[in-house]
Write a structure and sequence with these properties.
Blueprint: E1 7-11, H1 16-27, E2 31-36, H2 41-48, E3 52-55, E4 68-71, H3 80-87, E5 91-94, H4 95-104, E6 107-112, H5 117-130, E7 136-143, E8 148-151, E9 157-161, E10 176-179, H6 193-205, E11 212-216, H7 220-226, E12 232-236, E13 244-252, E14 255-262, E15 265-272, H8 277-292, H9 297-304, E16 315-320, E17 323-328, H10 333-343, E18 350-355, H11 360-371, E19 379-382, H12 398-407, E20 413-415, H13 421-428, E21 433-438, H14 444-458, H15 463-469, E22 475-481, E23 493-499, H16 503-516, E24 520-523, E25 529-530, E26 536-542, E27 551-554, E28 557-561, H17 566-575, E29 578-579, H18 591-597, E30 614-621, E31 626-630, E32 636-637, E33 640-641, E34 646-654, E35 656-657, H19 660-677, E36 684-687, E37 689-690, H20 699-705, E38 712-713, E39 716-718, E40 725-728, H21 734-752, E41 757-758, E42 761-762
Parallel strand pairs: 1-2, 1-4, 2-3, 4-5, 6-9, 6-10, 7-9, 10-11, 11-12, 17-21, 18-19, 18-21, 19-20, 23-26, 24-26, 25-42
Antiparallel strand pairs: 7-8, 13-14, 14-15, 16-17, 22-23, 27-28, 28-34, 29-35, 30-31, 30-34, 32-33, 36-40, 37-41, 38-39, 39-40
């Protein structure tokens, strides 16, 4: 067993597949090292987890204690680290062999196919995670729920994207196999369609006894190879003859919904936050797997609707100044058509498509299909072929696709050097344009540059954001939508969004804003914020860098950064036997926001307030001056404090020493109670109003007695569970919520003579 070795070295560790395996091994406790041509976000994440990363390839990179060297298909046999491994008789393994050892020891769910693997794998992985099955996950793209492309889980399932491109998926022995579709692809490896079918047939043959193959019922190639195979199988598709199919499909913008029909029985509605008919197929594959695992449709639907997509899969990179920029990994004609079809659900005046072909062999074999793939685009920008690991083929160039596109009747097509794409697109773009950048190579760099250029260009000439970017290393963005940063999922863009790296940079940011008289709002996790539809005319600052998320425990004392998650602190404290804040479980805020608002129960002694536990604070005023506040300097009231003139940087809390097992049990009970009584599974900002001090009833009780539960205005609704919650049922605007708030205030005033006071902050 290769995994009997404690230290594993990866050559090409920055690749999406290699980094996923490396991350899982790190989380499993292995020593992991690796090298790549250059560092990237994935290698930085591995380094943060304890991996030893080398930039560039050299024999000296191979650690003395390495027991296995792992390589991918893109690494040449002449690589100096592989040569050193051969000389030292270190085990050398293809990445699929290591993946197979991780995968085969659990109940494996392998997802393969020409298109849609990453999204389908991610949907299944998110479903298992949200249903608390604690899966091990390896995905060919980064997903928000995993903060990357992988996760080691303690559950019995492992979900992995199975790479068919070089038949390396044959190292996997899945219990559940998912095949999204099958086309002639990867011409560098497969010579004929019969070769492709033979490879997939062998993959199906690897499915363990008692397992199931889930397949695209509408794909004739898959049906052909399955017709003589004796194995449990279930089909998904648009055809009513499939085991599962959709009905009443609705697509608007990025939202998709459909009714799920399983074996002629309507199960319920599935809602997606990713567009396109191809994603309906991907979602049905995930639903079918969930049904096989015994999950109920409510849990399946609830988890799937939380999936917002994977990086480089119809990823919105910018939505600024009337221009939308989308990046997608599409590099096959079928994928390009699917992306452009998904674009048809969005509102735009012109569609500008940018495409970089991937591999000479693919370009040569599929050139006719590429020629007709860009229907729907108003303008097409082509750039030179990304070679990957191939050598150029004589006569094969981007001009081949250009000529075929022109022959198919598209006139507005140009060939531009990759480095010149941002300049070219910025010159031709207009308000109302949708720009789609597609390709599997390094076209991402053009998308990155375009995103930055659009941000800088938004506010007049972008000089304000550009100037601030030049003075700090933290993130600075123009026109960042506040809906992305609030639990309500509502709100237009902030003129400036800033994430300083430390208190020194925060001081610079405050000085910058003061000199220009820019209004400032400091946001945590946005759990009690309602942002207006036009956005915030000023600067929104978020303290979420590692510098603001440190935590140190010494006895009963915890020193914790303002950006640290309150929910995470509560959980850690309980596990350490530190009691007092367990009733705050379920509040999705940060420590800074919780202290500022004195989060807790206040009127009920069982529900403690965080202010009771604060012994000192490190703060900064809005002029940039830092100081320490002692307990005697602080005053806490009901959902209030005397800290309005300060930005909290760090807090020292003193807990009550209690039995850890008792605290964890109490934590579970509090969370169960809140889930039963509060709407925690849909977007909201928590309680809308403060409970009145001189009333026998709470706000929720008064609103409930007035019969307002379930009342809707637009996409906003007064929760059926807790009448003091307004929820974003679907597509709610700030105007919708404010209308409901005014209605509640008016009715309570008329019936009870009480003027309700907002607990949420409207910006």
């Amino acid at each position: 067993m290769l995994l009997d070795n404690k230290h594993i070295h990866f050559v090409g560790i920055g690749g999406i597949g290699m980094s996923a395996i490396a991350r899982v091994l790190l989380e499993m406790g292995y020593d992991v090292s690796g090298s790549d041509v250059e560092a990237n976000d994935l290698t930085k994440k591995l380094q943060a987890l304890g991996g030893r990363i080398f930039e560039g390839h050299s024999a000296s990179n191979l650690p003395k204690d390495a027991g296995v060297l792992v390589y991918s298909s893109s690494i040449s046999k002449g690589n100096p680290e592989m040569h050193a491994a051969r000389q030292r008789k270190v085990n050398i393994a293809h990445r699929a062999e290591i993946l197979g050892e991780i995968f085969n020891c659990k109940k494996g769910i392998a997802v393969t196919g020409t298109h849609g693997k990453t999204t389908t794998t991610a949907l299944i992985a998110v479903m298992l995670k949200e249903c608390r099955l604690k899966p091990t996950v390896m995905i060919g793209g980064e997903v928000g729920q995993f903060k990357g492309n992988a996760q080691a889980g303690s559950g019995s399932y492992v979900v992995a994207e199975a790479d068919e491109s070089d038949s390396s998926f044959l190292y996997l022995k899945p219990f559940y196999s998912v095949i999204t579709n099958m086309e002639m692809e990867h011409i560098d490896h497969f010579k004929t369609m019969d070769d492709v079918k033979a490879s997939y047939r062998a993959f199906i043959g690897n499915t363990k006894k008692g397992g199931t193959v889930f397949y695209n019922f509408d794909d004739p190639n898959i049906k052909d190879i399955l017709k003589d195979v004796r194995i449990n199988k279930a089909g998904f598709g648009f055809s009513k003859q499939a085991d599962i199919h959709p009905a009443d499909i609705k697509m608007k913008g990025f939202d998709t919904s459909f009714k799920c029909i399983f074996k002629n029985k309507a199960l319920g509605e599935i809602r997606l936050k990713i567009p396109g008919r191809h994603n309906i197929l991907n979602a049905m594959a995930a639903v079918l797997v969930g049904i096989e695992l015994g999950l109920d449709i409510k849990s399946i639907a609830g988890s799937i609707k939380k999936f917002t997509g994977a990086k480089r899969r119809f990823q919105v990179r910018a939505n600024i100044g009337g221009v939308i920029l989308i990046e997608d990994y599409a590099h096959h004609p079928t994928e390009i058509r699917a992306v452009l079809d998904a674009c048809s659900n969005l509102k735009y005046k012109r569609l500008i498509a940018v495409f970089q072909p991937h591999r000479y062999t693919r370009t040569l074999f599929l050139v006719d299909d590429f020629g007709s793939a860009f229907k729907g685009a108003d303008k097409l920008v082509l750039t030179d072929i990304y070679a990957a690991s191939e050598k150029p083929l004589k006569g094969v160039s981007i001009r081949m696709i250009y000529d075929k596109v022109k022959a198919n009747g598209m006139d507005d097509v140009v060939v531009v050097k990759k480095g010149d794409i941002p300049d070219h697109v910025m010159k031709i773009k207009k308000r109302g344009d949708l720009i789609v950048v597609m390709g599997a190579g390094d076209i991402k760099k053009a998308a990155d540059a375009l995103s930055s250029r659009l941000e800088e260009n938004f506010a007049e000439d972008g000089s304000t954001a550009k100037e601030l970017k030049g003075s700090i290393k933290g993130a600075v963005k123009s026109a960042e939508r506040l809906a992305f940063h609030s639990s309500f999922r509502i709100g237009g863009p902030a003129d400036l969004w800033v994430e300083p790296r430390d208190s020194g940079e925060l001081r610079k940011v405050l000085s910058f804003a003061n000199k220009r008289k820019i209004p400032i709002f400091v946001i945590g996790n946005g759990s009690n914020v309602l942002a207006r539809d036009p956005g915030f005319r000023g600067m929104v600052v978020r303290l979420n860098s590692p510098s603001f998320q440190r935590m140190k425990i010494k006895g009963r004392t915890v020193c914790v950064g303002a950006g640290f998650s309150l929910a995470r602190l509560v959980k850690i404290a309980c596990e350490k036997g530190l009691g007092g804040l367990e009733s705050l479980v379920g509040i999705p805020g940060t420590i800074g926001g919780a202290i500022y608002m004195n989060a807790g129960g206040w009127t009920n002694p069982v529900f403690r307030n965080i202010g009771e536990f604060v012994s000192s604070l490190k703060v900064m005023d809005y002029r940039g001056k830092a100081k320490m506040l002692r307990r005697s300097d602080m005053e806490f009231g009901y959902r209030s404090s005397n800290l309005k003139q300060y930005i909290i940087l760090e807090a020292t809390l003193k807990f009550e020493k209690t039995d850890a097992e008792l605290l964890v049990s109490s934590l579970t009970q509090f969370l169960k109670m809140k889930k039963e009584k509060q709407s925690l599974d849909v977007p909201s900002a928590g309680c809308v109003f403060k409970n009145p001090e001189k009333s026998q009833f709470t706000c929720g009780q008064m609103i409930d007695m007035l019969g307002l539960k379930g009342k809707r205005i637009g996409g906003a609704e007064i929760s059926e569970k807790h009448a003091n919650f307004v929820i974003n049922r679907r597509g709610a605007t700030c105007a919708d919520v404010l209308s409901l708030i005014e209605l509640m205030k008016k009715k309570v005033k008329e019936s009870y003579g009480i003027s309700l006071e907002l607990e949420i902050k409207v910006i």
